[in-house]
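Before relying on records like the one below, remember that each one covers exactly one chain. Contacts with other chains, cofactors or solvent are not represented anywhere in the record.
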Amino acid sequence: MCITQKIMVIIPAFNEADSIGSVIGDIPKNLAREIVVVSNASSDETEKNARKAGATVLREDARGYGYACLKGIEHAKSKPSRERPDIIVFLDGDYSDYPEEMDRLVRPIIDEHFDMVIGSRALGNRQKGSMLPQAVFGNALATTLIRWLYGASFTDLGAFRAIKFDRLLDLDMQDKTFGWTVEMQVKAAKKGLKYCEVPVSYRKRIGISKITGTLGGTIKAGYRIIWTIFKYL
């Protein structure tokens, strides 16, 4: 498989020392031109293990998923124009996604000229217990609201996704925390981007989720997601 587009993978990671090496190791090397791990104020050996696995490592001390993603985007923007990526793939660092399925996400962009592709856990094979009940419910509620309010059909807000870099810049992403993924999808719908979903597999993450693994994290994430959906009406 010959890929001429330049693909950058951005992996936000907060204390994922036990999983980050496996995530990087499973990314198809014929697809990724550069793998960027953004350590989001990690206090363990996430950064050391990511470098050992061959990734470019950045550090973002402001805690928040969106902060880490924005740091990765700034890295991409800082490159000379001829070296900038054509496609950005976002991927979590906890090994819950299957990085080897990345081809499923970039193929519709490369072959069918889609602007954005969401990896849907709802459509794919999901290991029992990989998504807690509150996550399943919150995901269904959020995607239903997006359909009602924006007319956009999504089944998931999962982190595993691919988007053309120039389209990503057009979205002018702002969210610093839990509303990052839903902001991208809502803005994509409003701007008329050509998008689709593809089924992806999902397994139990390594370690405890910083969001749905605690009551406080679940409440904060849920509030931020719903607030973001209504914010862009």
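The first helix runs from residue 20 to 26.
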